[in-house]
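Hi F.,

I've been meaning to write this up properly since the lab meeting, where we talked about keeping a consistent format for the predictions we share between groups. The idea is simple: the sequence comes first, exactly as it goes in, then the structure tokens exactly as they come out, then a line or two of notes. No screenshots and no reformatting. I'm using this chain as the first example so we have something concrete to point to.
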Amino acid sequence: MRPAAKITFVGRCGFGTPIAKSSHHHSPSTVSPERAPVLGGSVSVSGLSEPAAALAARANDRIVLSGCSGGGKSSLLAELARRRHSVFSEAGRDVVREQTLIGGQGTPWTDLALFVELTVSRAVGDALESTALPGPSFFDRSVIDQLSGLEAKGLPVPAHIRSAVDEVRYNKTVFLVPPWPEIFTNDAERRHGFAEAEKAYHHLLCTYERFGYDPLILPKTSVTDRADRLLASLS
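Output, unedited:
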């Protein structure tokens, strides 16, 4: 018999004491008033433009899967797609693939600022597209990942990217894959090493919490087990 499914809740930017929670029920943690608005319940859309209203109304249906690079996100998203869930691929990888194909400058190792612009625009477009889909949609990273990446490198964050983080909200629960050196590999779109990926992961934990999200850390288990636990925690 498989042990009871558990996902780890991490508070205080991921450096506090982990609290094991059953994946069959998740009680949102308390968020301090100074943080970004918390999702959940009804959302007022009065006075908003049509795209903004659509984004606000479906915020809880946008589920983010983020975490450490090379930690198994893509495999998990593929499993969710196999189970006929709506899935959006990682915007950053899509941009790198396209820019490489056309010989463009919008890659993180050529022009990081341009890469972030293209990636954030793609992520916003994906969020808008998801509003026309029934049920929840799963996203491989979000606009917050791009903001966190700029901050982690000590670079300024443009006002319109901060605006994107405010406009494109997601379900309050964000699923993160932890650093997993045994499966980490490099490829044409992932040129950084594991140490850099791990450092970015810890900064990402803080960034998601800062914007009012609850990070839940998926265990290092099989793809099917991870998918089972993730879906059970949402039911």
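Notes:
The domain at 46-234 is CATH 3.40.50.300 (Rossmann fold).
Helices lie at 50-57, 73-82, 91-102, 112-130, 143-152, 159-167, 194-210, 223-234.

If this format works for you, I'll send the rest the same way.

G.
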